[in-house]
Amino acid sequence: MFFLNVLTSGLLAGLMYAMVAIGFVLIYKASGVFNFAQGTMVLFAALTFVVLNEHGLRFWAAFPVTVVVMIIGAFLIERLVLRPLVNRSPNTLFVATLGLSFVIEGLAQTLFGSDVHQLELGIDDSPLDLYGLQITQFDISASAIAIVMVAVLAVLFSKTRMGISLRAVADDTLAAQSVGIRLPHIWRIVWSVSGFVALVAGLLWGARQGVQFSLSLVVLKAMPVLIIGGFSSIPRAIVGGLMIGATENLADIYIGPFVNGSVSNWFAYILAVAFLLIRPSGLFGEAPIARV
Amino acid sequence: MTSVASTFAARSAPIQPSHIALAGVLVVAAALPFFGNDYWLNSLITPTIVMGLAGLGLNLLTGYAGLVSLGSAAFMSIGAFSAYNLLLRTPYLPLPLALICAGLIAAAFGVLFGLPSLRIKGFYLSASTLGAQFFFEWLFTNFHWFSNNSLTLTISAPRLEIFGYNLDIPPGRYALAVVTTCLLYWLAHNIIDSRIGRDWMAIRDMDTAAAVAGIPVGRRKLLAYGVSSFFCGVAGALWAFCYLGTTDAHAFDLDKSFQVLFIVIIGGSASLVGNFLGAAFIVLTPIVLDLAVLGAGLEAAIDHGTVTNALRVIFGVIIILLLVKEPDGLASLIGRLPRLFWTTRLRRRTP
């Protein structure tokens, strides 16, 4: 039973990692950018929401306002960072998002201060006992929210005109452009959606551990999730997240005591690398064909 | 990008402008301890040189061989902790040999964490080096043997002497950093010019084509990880002993790795000189921004936290601006300077 409890709490943490990883996947698919600033976007969104909330705005007012803020941010990023850097090497774009993460992080803390904010979403966080399995109502709600969000995104991407053009861009950027899909428009949408995902992830994480600077470090947990799941699919990111969350938690409990303490900082990475050595193209990936 | 034609041209001519520039830099470097004061040497020049060396290491890997690493600081820390333990536990080993051995240990781990490059490409590779980053910071913090069971988990140079000369004075530490960096720069230059360097560039430009042309791609990739980590390891030892003096594993955190990456991208990918320009930028910008805040008299008006955060924003903006305005890094800017000067003079003559 203890094992099962460790496993469940790991899976729940993994779901949270996956939420952050989804934001990565969206941006990577549409623009080939490995967006390191996703973590600071989570922080920024959560901070904006909390500060609005503390100034008396109810949830249903603060939420849309924050979404609008994130959309404005997405438009600015597209105009000021992505457009001038179009067609540059992935390394350059990655470093640009590192610079961007400095800017967002600095802005967030200049505007909202660096205190820890408590976030109360009004969901009960006391553990329930399901046949010996310790699980809280908050965990269940968080998973439900994550599942609903993924379902909505999936419908959006497979059924709407916008989603289909986005997939076209991901598939073949040049071909998509030549049939008249406007790339900057797609970028704006994608960065807005991942801003929205960042907000949801930030609220769920923030309600658990307080809205504070360390929220932006969750980006580092999303990396191995992406490595295992692959950069290009949302469902795979979720499976990757669950795997990482579960094994990380199990390793911390069962291996940790033998090696002087917590191993969760690096275990996920080593796991991801071991995984890659066995299956280089990822969990579900197909082997690429090399051509000269 | 260094074109093959230009490197060949550089070989055929006996004396090049770059050689004169190099001699000039060496003269200035040798003269600096006599003119600059200790503050200058210790907090501006030495960190620039050492970070430039670390950047050089990463640039060999990223700029020339086209492989990714987000764990440069991990290999720096391996170098630092190895050098410390070698100097401490093998008293008969002279300092230069200890540095070389520390570099070789870092190189061995570089090859180990470079193994995934045989099977995977692109950004997926960063996971392995990022894993190294977290693993070694954890290792050196949690296993106290590495810091000789010191209570503060710190290491400091046990003995910094060469042939009986004590180097543990500011000019001595500076000299150690400069001489080591010059030697390694020369080594890097020759590696780039050799068959290995050409192979790296071929792999960077298209590895499938390189494999078809008979280049042992896997071996060369591992070699790139090894050589890069060797440079980073030596730079780490110098960073710990010549610049910081006393340090712990957290001096080599993820931020340091990112700084090294900034140096490579801002200084110029596949450029040797660029690393030192990038390092100067990384070291000097925070200092200049701090001085600007002091100079504007804003110190009293706003609290320290706000200043730090504002500086973060400015630093981020400068990085993005540099990426946009200088696609080939600061190295290309320096290359263009004489021409810029020339064209403005021409323009002035014509009415």
Concise structural overview:
With 292 residues, chain A is mainly α.
Tags for this entry?
heterodimer, A: 292 residues, mainly alpha, two-stranded antiparallel sheet, 11 helices, B: 351 residues, ABC transporter involved in vitamin B12 uptake, BtuC, two-stranded antiparallel ribbon, globular, disordered N terminus
What does this protein look like?
The complex is a heterodimer of chains A (292) and B (351). With 292 residues, chain A is mainly α. Chain A has one domain. Chain A has eleven helices and two strands. Chain A has helices spanning 2-31, 38-54, 59-82, 90-112, 137-159, 161-171, 173-178, 183-209, 219-229, 234-254, 267-278, and strands spanning 127-130, 133-136. In chain A, strands 1-2 form a two-stranded antiparallel sheet. Chain A is globular, with a radius of gyration of 19 Å. The termini of chain A are far apart. Chain B is an all-alpha fold and 351 residues long. Chain B has one domain (4-349): ABC transporter involved in vitamin B12 uptake, BtuC, CATH 1.10.3470. Chain B is 74% helix and 2% strand. Chain B contains 14 helices and four strands. Chain B has helices at residues 4-12, 17-35, 38-64, 72-89, 95-114, 126-142, 170-193, 195-205, 207-212, 217-244, 254-267, 272-295, 304-325, 329-349, and strands at 155-156, 161-162, 165-166, 246-247. In chain B, the strands form two sheets. A two-stranded antiparallel sheet of chain B has the order 1-4. In chain B, helix 4 (72-89) runs parallel beside helix 6 and helix 11 (254-267) crosses helix 12 (272-295). The longest helix of chain B is centred in the middle third of the chain and has 28 residues, at 217-244. Mean pLDDT of chain B is 84; it is low at 1-13. The chains are: A mainly alpha (292), B mainly alpha (351). The interface between A and B is large, with 48 and 48 residues.
